[in-house]
Amino acid sequence: MAGNRRLPVDPIAEAKRQWIAHGWESAAAGMTAVTSIIRAQQLLFARIDATLKPFGLSFARYELLRLLGFTREGRMPMASAIARLQVHPTSVTNTVDRLARDGLVSREPHPADGRAAMLVLTDEGRALVERATLALNAEVFEQPGLGDDDTTELVRIIARLRKDAGDFTDPKPQPEPL
């Protein structure tokens, strides 16, 4: 893979130099930030994909299994899964279809809404997602490529970017229990 070969120059730094040379200095820092984030995502996804490949999972399939695995009973409405995964409903439907075909999830009628479906994690799905999570923790999440302080600061900065873009709002304070 081309990503394994170290380049003699950082192409993003070169792009910034070109941006400035072409008179776009006011956009150069932003272009550098955006393309750096995109490249970092590519590098992290390559690690994730390599870790999940032995389990026969894509990251989308893993995310859905993990989401169901976090629920008390291993089930949730399809609409809730779509909202939490923040992807197009068709993508979730296609992922569920593949997971159901492989016996990792099943669909059941919603108990209160005849038009809706419940997604249910099978025993095989639960076992697989637990093994995959152990591998991701060991091979990616415990060592993301940054020290603890840098990791914390990066998460803070990206959370601020996401919040300012309207991705989420701070939760309202909960009243004290009675």
Number of helices: 7
* CATH homologous superfamily title of the largest domain: Winged helix-like DNA-binding domain superfamily/Winged helix DNA-binding domain
Mean pLDDT: 93
Radius of gyration: 21 Å
Provide the CATH architecture of the largest domain.
Orthogonal Bundle
Assign the CATH class of the largest domain: Mainly Alpha
**What order do the SSEs take from the amino end to the carboxyl end, as H and E?**
HHHEHHEEHH
Biggest sheet strand order reads 1-3-2
Topology, number of strands: 3
Number of domains: 2
What is the name of the CATH topology of the largest domain?
Arc Repressor Mutant, subunit A
Strand content: 5-15%
Largest β sheet strand count, sense and barrel closure: 3 strands, antiparallel
Unreliably modeled segments? none
Structural class: mainly alpha
The termini sit apart by 59 Å
Would you give an account of this structure?
Residues 30-163 form the HTH marR-type domain. It holds the Pfam family MarR_2. InterPro entries: HTH_MarR-typ, MarR/SlyA-like, Tscrpt_reg_MarR-type_CS, WH-like_DNA-bd_sf, WH_DNA-bd_sf. With 178 residues, the protein is mainly α. It has two domains: 9-55; 56-156, Winged helix-like DNA-binding domain superfamily/Winged helix DNA-binding domain (Arc Repressor Mutant, subunit A), CATH 1.10.10.10. Helices cover 61% and strands 7% of the residues. The protein has seven helices and three strands. The protein has helices spanning 11-21, 25-52, 59-70, 78-85, 89-101, 123-141, 148-164; strands spanning 75-77, 105-109, 117-121. A three-stranded antiparallel beta sheet has the order 1-3-2. Strand 2 (105-109) and strand 3 form a beta hairpin. The model has no long low-confidence stretch (mean pLDDT 93).
